[in-house]
Amino acid sequence: MALAFDEFGRPFVIIKEQDQKVRLRGLDAQKANIASGMAVSRILRTSLGPKGMDKMLQSPDGDVTITNDGATILEQMDVDNQIAKLLVELSRSQDYEIGDGTTGVVVLAGALLEQAQKLLERGVHPIRVAEGYETASRIAVEHLEKIAQKFDFGVNNIEPLVQTCMTTLSSKIVNRCKRSLAEISVKAVLAVADLERKDVNLDLIKVEGKVGGKLEDTELIYGIVVDKEMSHPQMPKQIEDAKIAILTCPFEPPKPKTKHKVDVDTVEKFQTLRKQEHQYFDNMVQKCKGVGATLVICQWGFDDEANHLLMNRNLPAVRWVGGVELELIAIATGGRIVPRFEELTPEKLGKAGLVQEKAFGTTKDRMLYVEHCANSRAVTIFIRGGNKMMIEETKRSIHDALCVARNLIRNNSIVYGGGSSEISCSISVEAAADRYPGVEQYAIRAFADALDSVPMSLAENSGLQPIETLSAVKSQQIKENNPYCGIDCNDAGTNDMREQNVFETLIGKQQQILLATQVVKMILKIDDVISPSDF
Ligand code: ADP
Protein backbone atom coordinates (compact mmCIF):
# COMPACT_ATOMS: atom_id res chain seq x y z
CA MET A 1 0.00 0.00 0.00
CA ALA A 2 1.22 3.50 -0.72
CA LEU A 3 -0.10 6.94 0.07
CA ALA A 4 -0.16 9.48 -2.75
CA PHE A 5 -1.64 12.93 -3.40
CA ASP A 6 -3.55 14.14 -6.42
CA GLU A 7 -3.07 17.52 -8.08
CA PHE A 8 -5.33 19.21 -5.53
CA GLY A 9 -3.37 17.84 -2.64
CA ARG A 10 -6.01 15.30 -1.66
CA PRO A 11 -4.56 12.11 -0.29
CA PHE A 12 -5.41 8.71 -1.76
CA VAL A 13 -4.23 5.19 -1.18
CA ILE A 14 -2.80 2.98 -3.93
CA ILE A 15 -3.29 -0.72 -3.35
CA LYS A 16 -1.15 -2.94 -5.46
CA GLU A 17 -3.11 -5.56 -7.37
CA GLN A 18 -0.91 -8.32 -6.04
CA ASP A 19 -1.85 -7.47 -2.48
CA GLN A 20 -5.42 -8.49 -3.25
CA LYS A 21 -4.40 -11.89 -4.43
CA VAL A 22 -3.72 -14.98 -2.44
CA ARG A 23 -0.50 -16.59 -3.43
CA LEU A 24 0.83 -20.02 -2.64
CA ARG A 25 4.33 -20.99 -3.62
CA GLY A 26 6.57 -24.01 -3.79
CA LEU A 27 5.73 -27.03 -1.73
CA ASP A 28 2.69 -25.31 -0.19
CA ALA A 29 1.17 -24.92 -3.63
CA GLN A 30 1.77 -28.56 -4.49
CA LYS A 31 0.38 -29.78 -1.21
CA ALA A 32 -2.76 -27.66 -1.49
CA ASN A 33 -3.34 -28.83 -5.05
CA ILE A 34 -2.81 -32.46 -4.16
CA ALA A 35 -5.26 -32.16 -1.29
CA SER A 36 -7.99 -30.75 -3.55
CA GLY A 37 -7.43 -33.46 -6.13
CA MET A 38 -7.58 -36.18 -3.51
CA ALA A 39 -10.80 -34.78 -2.09
CA VAL A 40 -12.54 -35.24 -5.43
CA SER A 41 -11.19 -38.71 -5.94
CA ARG A 42 -12.27 -39.73 -2.43
CA ILE A 43 -15.87 -38.95 -3.36
CA LEU A 44 -15.77 -41.30 -6.33
CA ARG A 45 -13.87 -44.09 -4.62
CA THR A 46 -16.95 -45.55 -3.00
CA SER A 47 -18.74 -45.71 -6.35
CA LEU A 48 -16.23 -48.00 -8.02
CA GLY A 49 -17.09 -51.53 -8.99
CA PRO A 50 -20.11 -53.83 -9.02
CA LYS A 51 -20.88 -53.15 -5.37
CA GLY A 52 -20.15 -49.42 -5.60
CA MET A 53 -22.53 -46.97 -4.02
CA ASP A 54 -24.71 -44.57 -5.95
CA LYS A 55 -24.77 -40.83 -5.47
CA MET A 56 -27.82 -38.65 -5.37
CA LEU A 57 -27.32 -35.18 -6.74
CA GLN A 58 -29.79 -32.36 -6.67
CA SER A 59 -29.48 -29.52 -9.14
CA PRO A 60 -30.32 -25.92 -8.16
CA ASP A 61 -33.73 -26.24 -9.84
CA GLY A 62 -34.58 -29.30 -7.78
CA ASP A 63 -33.94 -31.98 -10.39
CA VAL A 64 -32.60 -35.16 -8.81
CA THR A 65 -30.08 -37.48 -10.44
CA ILE A 66 -29.13 -40.84 -8.99
CA THR A 67 -26.09 -42.40 -10.61
CA ASN A 68 -22.79 -44.14 -10.09
CA ASP A 69 -21.25 -43.04 -13.35
CA GLY A 70 -18.11 -41.08 -12.51
CA ALA A 71 -18.40 -38.59 -15.34
CA THR A 72 -22.00 -37.77 -14.47
CA ILE A 73 -21.32 -37.36 -10.75
CA LEU A 74 -18.49 -34.93 -11.40
CA GLU A 75 -20.44 -33.14 -14.12
CA GLN A 76 -23.31 -32.44 -11.77
CA MET A 77 -21.21 -31.49 -8.77
CA ASP A 78 -20.74 -27.78 -8.43
CA VAL A 79 -16.95 -27.80 -8.29
CA ASP A 80 -15.28 -24.48 -7.58
CA ASN A 81 -11.65 -25.41 -7.09
CA GLN A 82 -9.52 -25.26 -10.23
CA ILE A 83 -7.57 -28.43 -9.48
CA ALA A 84 -10.78 -30.29 -8.76
CA LYS A 85 -11.99 -29.05 -12.14
CA LEU A 86 -8.99 -30.72 -13.76
CA LEU A 87 -10.20 -34.05 -12.40
CA VAL A 88 -13.68 -33.34 -13.72
CA GLU A 89 -12.06 -32.73 -17.13
CA LEU A 90 -10.11 -35.96 -16.74
CA SER A 91 -13.22 -38.00 -16.27
CA ARG A 92 -14.86 -36.18 -19.15
CA SER A 93 -12.02 -36.93 -21.53
CA GLN A 94 -12.17 -40.61 -20.61
CA ASP A 95 -15.88 -40.42 -21.36
CA TYR A 96 -15.31 -38.76 -24.75
CA GLU A 97 -12.55 -41.07 -25.88
CA ILE A 98 -13.67 -44.38 -24.45
CA GLY A 99 -17.06 -43.94 -22.80
CA ASP A 100 -16.35 -46.27 -19.89
CA GLY A 101 -13.93 -46.35 -16.96
CA THR A 102 -14.74 -42.81 -15.87
CA THR A 103 -14.74 -43.62 -12.16
CA GLY A 104 -11.62 -45.77 -12.33
CA VAL A 105 -9.55 -43.04 -13.96
CA VAL A 106 -10.30 -40.54 -11.19
CA VAL A 107 -9.64 -43.11 -8.46
CA LEU A 108 -6.27 -43.87 -10.04
CA ALA A 109 -5.39 -40.18 -10.33
CA GLY A 110 -6.31 -39.68 -6.65
CA ALA A 111 -4.06 -42.56 -5.62
CA LEU A 112 -1.16 -41.21 -7.68
CA LEU A 113 -1.57 -37.84 -5.96
CA GLU A 114 -1.63 -39.48 -2.56
CA GLN A 115 1.60 -41.33 -3.25
CA ALA A 116 3.18 -38.18 -4.67
CA GLN A 117 2.37 -36.34 -1.47
CA LYS A 118 4.30 -38.91 0.56
CA LEU A 119 7.32 -38.54 -1.70
CA LEU A 120 7.23 -34.75 -1.55
CA GLU A 121 7.16 -34.93 2.23
CA ARG A 122 10.26 -37.06 2.10
CA GLY A 123 11.98 -34.37 0.09
CA VAL A 124 11.83 -35.78 -3.43
CA HIS A 125 11.58 -33.04 -6.03
CA PRO A 126 8.23 -32.88 -7.84
CA ILE A 127 9.92 -33.12 -11.23
CA ARG A 128 11.58 -36.39 -10.22
CA VAL A 129 8.17 -37.72 -9.18
CA ALA A 130 6.63 -36.61 -12.47
CA GLU A 131 9.40 -38.28 -14.48
CA GLY A 132 9.18 -41.46 -12.48
CA TYR A 133 5.43 -41.60 -13.03
CA GLU A 134 5.93 -41.11 -16.76
CA THR A 135 8.38 -44.02 -16.95
CA ALA A 136 6.15 -46.21 -14.81
CA SER A 137 3.06 -45.48 -16.89
CA ARG A 138 4.97 -46.53 -20.03
CA ILE A 139 5.94 -49.80 -18.37
CA ALA A 140 2.36 -50.41 -17.26
CA VAL A 141 0.87 -49.69 -20.68
CA GLU A 142 3.34 -52.04 -22.35
CA HIS A 143 2.65 -54.70 -19.77
CA LEU A 144 -1.09 -54.43 -20.45
CA GLU A 145 -0.39 -55.36 -24.06
CA LYS A 146 1.40 -58.47 -22.91
CA ILE A 147 -1.47 -59.71 -20.76
CA ALA A 148 -4.15 -58.66 -23.25
CA GLN A 149 -6.01 -61.28 -25.18
CA LYS A 150 -7.72 -61.13 -28.52
CA PHE A 151 -11.10 -62.56 -28.89
CA ASP A 152 -13.05 -63.31 -31.96
CA PHE A 153 -16.59 -62.41 -32.59
CA GLY A 154 -18.68 -62.20 -35.66
CA VAL A 155 -22.14 -61.20 -36.65
CA ASN A 156 -23.21 -64.75 -35.83
CA ASN A 157 -21.16 -65.02 -32.68
CA ILE A 158 -21.99 -62.04 -30.55
CA GLU A 159 -21.63 -63.75 -27.20
CA PRO A 160 -18.14 -62.35 -26.39
CA LEU A 161 -19.37 -58.82 -27.06
CA VAL A 162 -22.41 -59.37 -24.90
CA GLN A 163 -20.22 -60.64 -22.07
CA THR A 164 -18.06 -57.51 -22.08
CA CYS A 165 -21.06 -55.22 -22.12
CA MET A 166 -22.44 -57.20 -19.19
CA THR A 167 -19.28 -56.43 -17.17
CA THR A 168 -19.86 -52.74 -17.75
CA LEU A 169 -23.51 -52.97 -16.81
CA SER A 170 -22.91 -55.10 -13.74
CA SER A 171 -21.72 -52.10 -11.74
CA LYS A 172 -24.76 -50.01 -12.61
CA ILE A 173 -28.18 -49.73 -11.03
CA VAL A 174 -29.66 -51.57 -14.00
CA ASN A 175 -27.66 -54.76 -13.38
CA ARG A 176 -30.90 -56.69 -12.82
CA CYS A 177 -31.43 -56.70 -16.59
CA LYS A 178 -27.82 -56.70 -17.66
CA ARG A 179 -28.17 -59.66 -19.98
CA SER A 180 -31.01 -58.23 -22.02
CA LEU A 181 -29.63 -54.69 -22.05
CA ALA A 182 -26.20 -55.98 -23.14
CA GLU A 183 -27.81 -57.95 -25.98
CA ILE A 184 -29.78 -54.92 -27.08
CA SER A 185 -26.68 -52.73 -27.05
CA VAL A 186 -24.59 -55.20 -29.02
CA LYS A 187 -27.30 -55.75 -31.62
CA ALA A 188 -27.75 -52.00 -31.97
CA VAL A 189 -24.03 -51.42 -32.47
CA LEU A 190 -23.76 -54.26 -35.00
CA ALA A 191 -26.76 -52.90 -36.90
CA VAL A 192 -25.03 -49.58 -37.51
CA ALA A 193 -21.41 -50.81 -37.58
CA ASP A 194 -19.20 -50.75 -40.60
CA LEU A 195 -17.29 -53.97 -39.94
CA GLU A 196 -14.94 -53.51 -42.88
CA ARG A 197 -13.75 -50.10 -41.79
CA LYS A 198 -14.03 -51.19 -38.15
CA ASP A 199 -15.98 -48.16 -37.18
CA VAL A 200 -19.30 -47.40 -35.57
CA ASN A 201 -21.20 -44.16 -35.76
CA LEU A 202 -23.04 -44.03 -32.45
CA ASP A 203 -25.10 -41.07 -33.68
CA LEU A 204 -27.15 -43.54 -35.69
CA ILE A 205 -28.38 -45.15 -32.47
CA LYS A 206 -31.17 -43.16 -30.95
CA VAL A 207 -31.82 -43.79 -27.28
CA GLU A 208 -35.36 -42.86 -26.35
CA GLY A 209 -37.14 -43.38 -23.05
CA LYS A 210 -40.67 -43.19 -21.76
CA VAL A 211 -41.77 -43.47 -18.15
CA GLY A 212 -43.96 -46.50 -17.55
CA GLY A 213 -43.70 -50.25 -17.96
CA LYS A 214 -40.76 -52.26 -16.68
CA LEU A 215 -37.06 -52.14 -17.41
CA GLU A 216 -37.51 -55.58 -18.98
CA ASP A 217 -39.78 -54.02 -21.62
CA THR A 218 -36.85 -52.07 -23.04
CA GLU A 219 -36.57 -52.98 -26.71
CA LEU A 220 -34.49 -52.48 -29.82
CA ILE A 221 -36.36 -51.18 -32.82
CA TYR A 222 -34.84 -51.46 -36.26
CA GLY A 223 -36.11 -48.06 -37.20
CA ILE A 224 -36.89 -44.81 -35.49
CA VAL A 225 -39.22 -44.04 -32.63
CA VAL A 226 -40.32 -40.44 -32.18
CA ASP A 227 -42.21 -38.99 -29.28
CA LYS A 228 -44.93 -37.58 -31.55
CA GLU A 229 -48.36 -38.56 -32.78
CA MET A 230 -50.48 -38.10 -35.89
CA SER A 231 -51.63 -34.51 -36.14
CA HIS A 232 -55.31 -35.44 -36.19
CA PRO A 233 -56.90 -38.13 -34.02
CA GLN A 234 -58.91 -39.46 -36.97
CA MET A 235 -55.93 -40.11 -39.16
CA PRO A 236 -55.02 -43.80 -39.64
CA LYS A 237 -52.85 -45.23 -36.85
CA GLN A 238 -51.08 -47.68 -39.09
CA ILE A 239 -49.63 -47.17 -42.52
CA GLU A 240 -48.10 -50.02 -44.43
CA ASP A 241 -45.53 -49.47 -47.15
CA ALA A 242 -45.42 -45.82 -46.28
CA LYS A 243 -43.90 -43.31 -48.70
CA ILE A 244 -42.82 -40.48 -46.52
CA ALA A 245 -42.37 -36.84 -47.48
CA ILE A 246 -39.90 -35.31 -45.02
CA LEU A 247 -40.45 -31.58 -45.04
CA THR A 248 -38.74 -28.63 -43.43
CA CYS A 249 -41.16 -26.15 -45.03
CA PRO A 250 -44.27 -25.08 -43.18
CA PHE A 251 -47.77 -25.97 -44.29
CA GLU A 252 -48.96 -22.41 -44.48
CA PRO A 253 -49.42 -19.64 -47.02
CA PRO A 254 -46.20 -17.74 -47.68
CA LYS A 255 -45.72 -14.69 -45.50
CA PRO A 256 -44.82 -11.43 -47.24
CA LYS A 257 -41.29 -10.37 -46.40
CA THR A 258 -42.20 -6.66 -46.16
CA LYS A 259 -45.06 -5.11 -44.24
CA HIS A 260 -48.35 -4.96 -46.09
CA LYS A 261 -51.74 -3.77 -45.22
CA VAL A 262 -54.71 -5.64 -46.61
CA ASP A 263 -58.01 -3.83 -46.48
CA VAL A 264 -60.84 -6.27 -46.17
CA ASP A 265 -63.91 -4.10 -46.20
CA THR A 266 -66.43 -6.27 -47.97
CA VAL A 267 -67.65 -9.80 -47.50
CA GLU A 268 -66.56 -10.66 -51.02
CA LYS A 269 -62.99 -9.59 -50.41
CA PHE A 270 -62.87 -11.68 -47.28
CA GLN A 271 -64.20 -14.69 -49.09
CA THR A 272 -61.68 -14.30 -51.92
CA LEU A 273 -58.89 -14.12 -49.35
CA ARG A 274 -60.12 -17.23 -47.62
CA LYS A 275 -60.48 -19.04 -50.89
CA GLN A 276 -56.98 -18.13 -51.87
CA GLU A 277 -55.59 -19.37 -48.60
CA HIS A 278 -57.56 -22.56 -48.98
CA GLN A 279 -56.18 -22.88 -52.47
CA TYR A 280 -52.64 -22.62 -51.14
CA PHE A 281 -53.16 -25.45 -48.68
CA ASP A 282 -54.88 -27.45 -51.32
CA ASN A 283 -51.97 -27.05 -53.71
CA MET A 284 -49.49 -28.14 -51.06
CA VAL A 285 -51.49 -31.24 -50.20
CA GLN A 286 -51.97 -31.96 -53.90
CA LYS A 287 -48.23 -31.63 -54.47
CA CYS A 288 -47.48 -34.19 -51.75
CA LYS A 289 -50.12 -36.59 -53.01
CA GLY A 290 -49.02 -36.00 -56.58
CA VAL A 291 -45.56 -37.44 -55.97
CA GLY A 292 -47.09 -40.43 -54.19
CA ALA A 293 -46.53 -39.59 -50.51
CA THR A 294 -48.73 -41.48 -48.07
CA LEU A 295 -47.36 -39.75 -44.96
CA VAL A 296 -45.97 -36.31 -44.31
CA ILE A 297 -43.43 -35.64 -41.57
CA CYS A 298 -43.06 -31.95 -40.93
CA GLN A 299 -40.48 -30.00 -38.96
CA TRP A 300 -42.97 -27.20 -38.45
CA GLY A 301 -46.55 -27.03 -37.27
CA PHE A 302 -49.68 -26.22 -39.20
CA ASP A 303 -52.97 -24.77 -38.12
CA ASP A 304 -56.29 -26.51 -37.65
CA GLU A 305 -57.51 -25.67 -41.10
CA ALA A 306 -54.53 -27.28 -42.78
CA ASN A 307 -54.80 -30.19 -40.39
CA HIS A 308 -58.43 -30.71 -41.28
CA LEU A 309 -57.70 -30.54 -44.95
CA LEU A 310 -54.93 -33.10 -44.63
CA MET A 311 -57.30 -35.40 -42.83
CA ASN A 312 -60.02 -34.89 -45.45
CA ARG A 313 -57.62 -35.57 -48.29
CA ASN A 314 -56.47 -38.70 -46.58
CA LEU A 315 -52.89 -37.64 -46.11
CA PRO A 316 -51.74 -38.49 -42.57
CA ALA A 317 -49.23 -36.05 -41.13
CA VAL A 318 -46.95 -35.61 -38.13
CA ARG A 319 -45.91 -32.13 -37.03
CA TRP A 320 -43.18 -30.55 -34.90
CA VAL A 321 -40.59 -33.28 -35.43
CA GLY A 322 -37.14 -32.15 -34.24
CA GLY A 323 -34.23 -31.64 -36.62
CA VAL A 324 -32.12 -34.53 -35.31
CA GLU A 325 -35.03 -36.92 -35.51
CA LEU A 326 -35.88 -35.72 -38.99
CA GLU A 327 -32.35 -36.48 -40.07
CA LEU A 328 -32.44 -39.96 -38.54
CA ILE A 329 -35.76 -40.69 -40.22
CA ALA A 330 -34.27 -39.55 -43.52
CA ILE A 331 -31.24 -41.85 -43.04
CA ALA A 332 -33.34 -44.83 -41.98
CA THR A 333 -35.95 -44.53 -44.73
CA GLY A 334 -33.51 -43.52 -47.43
CA GLY A 335 -35.43 -40.30 -48.06
CA ARG A 336 -34.34 -36.73 -48.55
CA ILE A 337 -35.19 -33.77 -46.40
CA VAL A 338 -37.12 -31.37 -48.63
CA PRO A 339 -37.00 -27.65 -47.89
CA ARG A 340 -39.58 -26.49 -50.50
CA PHE A 341 -42.74 -28.03 -51.86
CA GLU A 342 -41.58 -27.35 -55.43
CA GLU A 343 -38.60 -29.62 -54.89
CA LEU A 344 -40.66 -32.62 -53.91
CA THR A 345 -40.12 -35.55 -56.29
CA PRO A 346 -41.01 -39.25 -55.97
CA GLU A 347 -37.31 -40.19 -55.53
CA LYS A 348 -37.01 -38.00 -52.48
CA LEU A 349 -39.65 -39.90 -50.52
CA GLY A 350 -38.48 -42.17 -47.71
CA LYS A 351 -39.76 -45.73 -47.60
CA ALA A 352 -40.81 -47.66 -44.51
CA GLY A 353 -42.58 -51.01 -44.35
CA LEU A 354 -44.67 -49.98 -41.39
CA VAL A 355 -45.37 -46.73 -39.62
CA GLN A 356 -47.59 -47.00 -36.61
CA GLU A 357 -48.72 -44.99 -33.67
CA LYS A 358 -48.56 -46.91 -30.40
CA ALA A 359 -50.28 -46.04 -27.15
CA PHE A 360 -48.94 -46.97 -23.72
CA GLY A 361 -51.01 -48.27 -20.84
CA THR A 362 -53.88 -46.06 -19.91
CA THR A 363 -52.09 -42.81 -20.64
CA LYS A 364 -52.78 -40.53 -23.54
CA ASP A 365 -49.13 -40.70 -24.53
CA ARG A 366 -48.51 -41.98 -27.99
CA MET A 367 -45.36 -42.57 -29.96
CA LEU A 368 -44.68 -43.02 -33.60
CA TYR A 369 -42.74 -46.09 -34.75
CA VAL A 370 -41.13 -46.01 -38.18
CA GLU A 371 -40.08 -49.60 -38.86
CA HIS A 372 -38.99 -52.02 -41.61
CA CYS A 373 -37.12 -49.20 -43.25
CA ALA A 374 -35.44 -49.26 -46.64
CA ASN A 375 -32.09 -48.78 -44.96
CA SER A 376 -32.18 -49.99 -41.38
CA ARG A 377 -28.82 -48.44 -40.49
CA ALA A 378 -30.45 -46.21 -37.93
CA VAL A 379 -31.93 -47.94 -34.90
CA THR A 380 -33.62 -46.93 -31.68
CA ILE A 381 -33.25 -48.30 -28.19
CA PHE A 382 -36.51 -47.64 -26.46
CA ILE A 383 -36.19 -47.67 -22.68
CA ARG A 384 -39.06 -48.22 -20.28
CA GLY A 385 -38.83 -47.78 -16.54
CA GLY A 386 -40.65 -46.79 -13.40
CA ASN A 387 -39.53 -43.19 -13.15
CA LYS A 388 -37.59 -40.49 -14.92
CA MET A 389 -34.45 -41.00 -12.82
CA MET A 390 -34.35 -44.69 -13.67
CA ILE A 391 -34.71 -43.95 -17.36
CA GLU A 392 -31.96 -41.34 -17.29
CA GLU A 393 -29.59 -43.70 -15.46
CA THR A 394 -30.44 -46.49 -17.91
CA LYS A 395 -29.63 -44.14 -20.78
CA ARG A 396 -26.22 -43.45 -19.25
CA SER A 397 -25.54 -47.12 -18.62
CA ILE A 398 -26.55 -48.03 -22.17
CA HIS A 399 -24.24 -45.30 -23.44
CA ASP A 400 -21.37 -47.00 -21.60
CA ALA A 401 -22.30 -50.41 -22.99
CA LEU A 402 -22.55 -49.01 -26.53
CA CYS A 403 -19.12 -47.43 -26.18
CA VAL A 404 -17.60 -50.68 -24.95
CA ALA A 405 -19.05 -52.61 -27.89
CA ARG A 406 -17.80 -49.95 -30.29
CA ASN A 407 -14.32 -50.04 -28.78
CA LEU A 408 -14.19 -53.80 -29.26
CA ILE A 409 -15.18 -53.49 -32.89
CA ARG A 410 -12.38 -50.97 -33.37
CA ASN A 411 -9.87 -53.09 -31.50
CA ASN A 412 -10.76 -56.54 -30.24
CA SER A 413 -8.14 -56.80 -27.49
CA ILE A 414 -9.31 -57.15 -23.93
CA VAL A 415 -7.79 -57.23 -20.48
CA TYR A 416 -9.42 -58.80 -17.47
CA GLY A 417 -11.16 -56.63 -14.88
CA GLY A 418 -11.84 -56.87 -11.18
CA GLY A 419 -8.50 -55.17 -10.52
CA SER A 420 -6.55 -58.13 -11.95
CA SER A 421 -4.80 -56.14 -14.66
CA GLU A 422 -3.93 -53.36 -12.21
CA ILE A 423 -2.37 -55.88 -9.82
CA SER A 424 -0.43 -57.48 -12.64
CA CYS A 425 0.81 -54.07 -13.83
CA SER A 426 1.72 -53.17 -10.27
CA ILE A 427 3.88 -56.30 -9.95
CA SER A 428 5.64 -55.62 -13.22
CA VAL A 429 6.22 -51.91 -12.45
CA GLU A 430 7.55 -52.81 -9.01
CA ALA A 431 9.96 -55.30 -10.56
CA ALA A 432 11.12 -52.75 -13.12
CA ALA A 433 11.81 -50.16 -10.41
CA ASP A 434 14.99 -51.91 -9.36
CA ARG A 435 16.51 -51.30 -12.76
CA TYR A 436 16.45 -47.53 -12.24
CA PRO A 437 19.37 -46.27 -10.17
CA GLY A 438 18.18 -42.74 -9.40
CA VAL A 439 15.53 -41.23 -7.17
CA GLU A 440 13.06 -42.07 -9.93
CA GLN A 441 13.02 -45.54 -8.47
CA TYR A 442 10.94 -44.29 -5.56
CA ALA A 443 8.44 -42.64 -7.84
CA ILE A 444 8.14 -45.80 -9.91
CA ARG A 445 7.47 -47.84 -6.76
CA ALA A 446 4.93 -45.24 -5.68
CA PHE A 447 3.20 -45.69 -9.04
CA ALA A 448 2.99 -49.43 -8.40
CA ASP A 449 1.40 -48.74 -5.02
CA ALA A 450 -1.08 -46.35 -6.60
CA LEU A 451 -2.17 -49.04 -9.07
CA ASP A 452 -3.05 -51.23 -6.10
CA SER A 453 -5.62 -48.72 -4.98
CA VAL A 454 -8.08 -49.84 -7.68
CA PRO A 455 -8.35 -53.46 -6.48
CA MET A 456 -8.24 -52.17 -2.93
CA SER A 457 -11.24 -49.91 -3.50
CA LEU A 458 -13.08 -52.74 -5.24
CA ALA A 459 -12.51 -54.96 -2.21
CA GLU A 460 -13.43 -52.25 0.24
CA ASN A 461 -16.65 -51.43 -1.59
CA SER A 462 -17.63 -55.11 -1.58
CA GLY A 463 -17.27 -55.35 2.18
CA LEU A 464 -13.96 -57.27 2.09
CA GLN A 465 -10.82 -56.50 4.07
CA PRO A 466 -8.90 -54.39 1.55
CA ILE A 467 -5.29 -55.03 2.54
CA GLU A 468 -5.71 -58.72 3.32
CA THR A 469 -7.64 -59.39 0.12
CA LEU A 470 -5.16 -57.50 -2.01
CA SER A 471 -2.11 -59.22 -0.55
CA ALA A 472 -3.72 -62.64 -0.93
CA VAL A 473 -4.57 -62.01 -4.58
CA LYS A 474 -1.19 -60.50 -5.31
CA SER A 475 0.72 -63.43 -3.89
CA GLN A 476 -1.57 -65.81 -5.78
CA GLN A 477 -0.79 -63.97 -9.04
CA ILE A 478 2.93 -64.31 -8.41
CA LYS A 479 2.76 -67.91 -7.20
CA GLU A 480 0.56 -69.19 -10.00
CA ASN A 481 1.97 -66.79 -12.58
CA ASN A 482 -1.60 -65.98 -13.44
CA PRO A 483 -2.31 -62.33 -14.25
CA TYR A 484 -6.06 -62.93 -14.33
CA CYS A 485 -6.65 -63.18 -10.58
CA GLY A 486 -8.71 -60.29 -9.32
CA ILE A 487 -11.09 -59.33 -6.56
CA ASP A 488 -14.08 -61.61 -6.20
CA CYS A 489 -16.55 -58.78 -5.60
CA ASN A 490 -19.70 -60.81 -6.12
CA ASP A 491 -18.59 -63.70 -3.94
CA ALA A 492 -18.72 -66.02 -6.94
CA GLY A 493 -16.30 -68.48 -5.36
CA THR A 494 -13.39 -67.90 -7.73
CA ASN A 495 -11.12 -64.95 -8.25
CA ASP A 496 -10.04 -65.96 -11.74
CA MET A 497 -11.62 -63.23 -13.80
CA ARG A 498 -11.61 -65.42 -16.90
CA GLU A 499 -14.08 -67.71 -15.21
CA GLN A 500 -16.14 -64.80 -13.99
CA ASN A 501 -16.13 -63.30 -17.48
CA VAL A 502 -15.16 -59.87 -16.22
CA PHE A 503 -13.24 -58.01 -18.87
CA GLU A 504 -12.64 -54.55 -20.17
CA THR A 505 -11.20 -53.23 -23.39
CA LEU A 506 -7.43 -52.88 -23.66
CA ILE A 507 -7.62 -49.37 -25.10
CA GLY A 508 -9.93 -48.29 -22.28
CA LYS A 509 -7.55 -49.48 -19.59
CA GLN A 510 -4.49 -48.02 -21.32
CA GLN A 511 -6.26 -44.72 -21.72
CA GLN A 512 -7.10 -44.70 -18.00
CA ILE A 513 -3.44 -45.05 -17.03
CA LEU A 514 -2.20 -42.52 -19.58
CA LEU A 515 -4.79 -39.88 -18.80
CA ALA A 516 -4.44 -40.20 -15.01
CA THR A 517 -0.63 -39.92 -15.25
CA GLN A 518 -0.90 -36.89 -17.50
CA VAL A 519 -3.15 -34.97 -15.14
CA VAL A 520 -1.11 -35.85 -12.06
CA LYS A 521 2.07 -34.71 -13.77
CA MET A 522 0.38 -31.47 -14.64
CA ILE A 523 -0.71 -30.90 -11.04
CA LEU A 524 2.77 -31.69 -9.73
CA LYS A 525 4.39 -29.16 -12.02
CA ILE A 526 2.40 -26.24 -10.64
CA ASP A 527 4.48 -24.46 -8.01
CA ASP A 528 2.81 -21.09 -7.86
CA VAL A 529 -0.88 -20.51 -7.37
CA ILE A 530 -2.12 -16.96 -7.69
CA SER A 531 -5.79 -16.50 -7.11
CA PRO A 532 -8.05 -13.60 -6.27
CA SER A 533 -8.78 -13.51 -2.56
CA ASP A 534 -12.44 -13.65 -1.72
CA PHE A 535 -13.12 -10.69 0.49
P1 ADP B 1 -16.18 -47.09 -14.24
O1 ADP B 1 -17.08 -45.88 -14.30
O2 ADP B 1 -14.76 -46.72 -14.06
O3 ADP B 1 -16.42 -48.07 -15.33
P2 ADP B 1 -17.48 -48.91 -12.49
O4 ADP B 1 -18.21 -48.51 -11.28
O5 ADP B 1 -18.24 -49.35 -13.69
O6 ADP B 1 -16.51 -47.76 -12.87
O7 ADP B 1 -16.50 -50.06 -12.05
C1 ADP B 1 -15.61 -50.66 -12.92
C2 ADP B 1 -14.69 -51.57 -12.18
O8 ADP B 1 -15.39 -52.65 -11.61
C3 ADP B 1 -13.68 -52.15 -13.13
O9 ADP B 1 -12.41 -52.13 -12.54
C4 ADP B 1 -14.18 -53.58 -13.33
O10 ADP B 1 -13.12 -54.45 -13.62
C5 ADP B 1 -14.80 -53.89 -12.01
N1 ADP B 1 -15.85 -54.93 -12.09
C6 ADP B 1 -16.98 -54.90 -12.81
N2 ADP B 1 -17.70 -56.02 -12.64
C7 ADP B 1 -17.01 -56.79 -11.77
C8 ADP B 1 -17.22 -58.09 -11.17
N3 ADP B 1 -18.30 -58.81 -11.45
N4 ADP B 1 -16.29 -58.53 -10.32
C9 ADP B 1 -15.20 -57.82 -10.03
N5 ADP B 1 -14.96 -56.61 -10.56
C10 ADP B 1 -15.82 -56.09 -11.41
UniProtKB/TrEMBL annotation:
Entry keywords, A to Z: Acetylation, ATP-binding, Chaperone, Cytoplasm, Cytoskeleton, Hydrolase, Isopeptide bond, Nucleotide-binding, Phosphoprotein, Ubl conjugation
GO MF terms held by the record: ATP binding; ATP hydrolysis activity; ATP-dependent protein folding chaperone; unfolded protein binding
Protein location: Cytoplasm, Cytoskeleton, Microtubule organizing center, Centrosome
GO CC annotations on file: chaperonin-containing T-complex
Catalysis: reaction(s): ATP + H2O = ADP + phosphate + H(+)
InterPro entries: Chap_CCT_epsi, Chaperone_TCP-1, Chaperonin_TCP-1_CS, Cpn60/GroEL/TCP-1, GroEL-like_apical_dom_sf, GROEL-like_equatorial_sf, TCP-1-like_intermed_sf, TCP-1_chaperonin
Gene3D superfamilies: GroEL, GroEL-like equatorial domain, TCP-1-like chaperonin intermediate domain
Xref: Pfam families: Cpn60_TCP1
Keyword ATP-binding set for record: yes
Entry's family note: Belongs to the TCP-1 chaperonin family.
Quaternary assembly: Heterooligomeric complex of about 850 to 900 kDa that forms two stacked rings, 12 to 16 nm in diameter. Component of the chaperonin-containing T-complex (TRiC), a hexadecamer composed of two identical back-to-back stacked rings enclosing a protein folding chamber. Each ring is made up of eight different subunits: TCP1/CCT1, CCT2, CCT3, CCT4, CCT5, CCT6A/CCT6, CCT7, CCT8. Interacts with PACRG. Interacts with DNAAF4. Interacts with DLEC1. Interacts with SPMAP2.
Function: Molecular chaperone; assists the folding of proteins upon ATP hydrolysis. Known to play a role, in vitro, in the folding of actin and tubulin.
NCBIfam families with a match to the protein in the record: chap_CCT_epsi, thermosome_alpha, thermosome_beta
Name of this protein: T-complex protein 1 subunit epsilon
Organism from which the protein derives: Populus euphratica (Euphrates poplar)
Protein's gene: LOC105138062
